[in-house]
Amino acid sequence: MSCDISRGRLEPCKDSVGGLNAVYFINKGDLGAITYDATNTDVIDAVAGSPDAYKFDIKGGSTYTENITSSRENGTTTFEQVLELQLTKLTKEDHKTVKLLAYGSPHVLIEDNNGNVFVAGLEHGLDVSGGTIVSGAAMGDMSGYTLTFSGMEKAPANFLGDTVTAVGFTVNEGS
Fold first, then answer.
1. I want to staple 151 with a disulfide (CB 3.0 to 4.6 A). Which of 34, 58, 102, 121 is the partner?
2. For residue 144, is it left (φ>0), alpha (ψ between -120 and 50) or beta?
3. Cα–Cα distance between 164 and 116 in angstroms, integer?
């Protein structure tokens, strides 16, 4: 693998926005074989079969961050992937789902407000590393769940080449 860069970067237009639109959880191991773009292995074009992706619409306080750690002494580079979700409203159904997410290590598709979709936890999945179930104190306080997912990968989260369904996922939306 060559470590030489092969392109520069111009100042981009000011047409990008922050924030997340939705996340999709896929049970660990259900991705199957992955097909990468022939000219850019950072882009996933398709997955084998039609793995189930469980969609969660999100607004506001949810974030996704990748922390890069590189050590010349050790000859290593890792990418810590951290997803912080804020899910409003406590329900019996969501309570069970949150518990199962905490027990598992799902792969997570993260859709930002620019239409980009990233695959976090591609090899190792993401684990719930913290969170809260809160009722709030005052009537205007949040009642719901906050969850922090984290994982460590050898490469940054891949982009999906097109939309989630075009790549081959079966999207299951909530009720």
1. 121
2. left
3. 10
List of residues 6+ apart from 128 with CB closer than 8 A: 101, 102, 147, 148, 149
Q: Which residues pair with 86 in a beta bridge?
A: 146
The tokens describing 5, both together, are 């860069």
The answer to whether the CB of 124 falls within 8 A of the CB of 10 is no
DSSP string, 7-47: ---PPPPS-----EEEEEEE-TT---SEEE-SS-TTEEEEE
Q: What is the pLDDT of residues 15-29, one digit of tens each?
A: 899 999 999 999 999
Quote the distance between the C-alpha of residue 161 and its chain's center.
Answer: 15
Residues 6+ apart with CB under 8 A from 110: 20, 23, 64, 83, 117, 118, 120, 157
d(CA 49, CA 46): 9
C-alpha 24/C-alpha 54 separation (Å) is 5
| Helix (H), strand (E) at residue 152 | strand 144-153
More confidently predicted of 163 and 159 = 159
CA distance 66 to 81: 5
Query: Starting at the edge strand that comes first in sequence, how are the strands of the sheet with 63-71 ordered?
Result: 63-71, 76-88, 144-153, 127-134
pTM of the model: 0.89
In angstroms, what is the C-alpha Rg of the chain?
17
- Between strands 63-71 and 107-112, the pairing is unpaired
